[in-house]
Amino acid sequence: MPSRRSLLKAAPRASLWTTRTDGQPPNIVLMIADDLGYGDPGCYGSTLLTPNLDSIAAEGVKLNHYVSANPVCSPSRASLLTGRYPTRTGVDRVLFPHDSVGLPQTETTIAGMLKHARYRTACVGKWHLGDQPQFMPTSHGFDDFYGVPYSSDMYPVPLVHNLEIIERPTRTTYLTRRFTEQAVRFLSAPQVSPFFLYVAYTAPHIPLWVNDEWRGKSLHGLYGDTVAEMDWSVGQILKALKDNRLDDNTLVIFTSDHGPWYEGSAGRLKGRKGETWEGGVRVPFLARFPGRIPAGLTVNGTASALDLLPTIAGLAGVALPGLPLDGIDIRPMLSGAQDAIDREAILYFDSNHIQCARLGRWKLHLARYSSPPWSPDPVDGRWNLPLCKPELYDLIADPTESCNVACDNADVVADIQARVQRLLPTLPSDVIRDWCDTNAVQVAETPDGALPVRKKV
So what's the pLDDT on residue 361? Predict the structure, then answer.
């Protein structure tokens, strides 16, 4: 980890996050894995071999406290592309084939924002924000789409080019290779304008699909093979940037949509996909930009998937969308100028339910999705119940969220609670209604420490 002196030396680099002197705006390649855990890449301490991901960390920046906007697929992707909480976008749950809902055309994605600045835009891989024509990538600022409209476990998943089905069911064992070939083809075409390439892998979401060429190669089972093939794909994209002399003016970002499901590692973090414990939402984030991001930089400040749109807007010098945003521009963190940026509390949602709020090193749990053994039955149909008392965790000293320190930090608890109350009126009415419903149930611990007793207030 760089010293304070090295961070101060890196500070002037923040000024380089602008258009080049030759007038050429920067290109952006954004790669996102499906269910890859915080502890899966080698550069985050894994024994899995991920040399290409590790090279991004070695040549750029690694964020240790980057969180998804939601612990499941569709909502997390909606927020990553719009910079807005999933409850604002209307995509607050996992979408399924032929759903009548999806990402509305009133939402502006990173692609839509950049398209107005004459960027060439392409989406390769998994979309999962609605499979009806009005919800598809070509209706959200992407010039070209090649991939699958939803999760690869939703059989029979089709392979689609723009709005045309070219294979159904698609051969899922070849998806990573085909996505790679399409991305390389895009990068190898004559570049007459800046570009935004969004590569959304279906790996390593289960069931695990891997090309026979990679089966048994990792020595870590089928999951390791799947991650190895995805890492190879990342390497091919990095190679294509260099081969086509695009490397020096391209920001490359790699991350995951949320935490791991049944396989994969959340590292030391508690929880997994579908949970608002850190293991469900904190994910790897790696970025490189030669000459603008210092090599080997590690940052411990808090960042979110919500931050990608405003950060890319600042980098490209384009206007922000008109709708309210929940993310901030984190270029000072990525350049090494600042290790952290002051920001409002980041809310953790399950559907429309606020469960936690993160402020710097502190995370306050306010409610929890009702499931055994904590609460085996809903109360009057309510599955999201308030905690008996808010739980506070110091994520720097206690990354496992094992030691509730609320009693010793009453001022921090009060501060975060007040911030949540100030944010609440800015959120959609469904969120406010569910928050009121959640807090209409009083939860009290029994003297012997048995399961909580719930009673309606």
Answer: 97
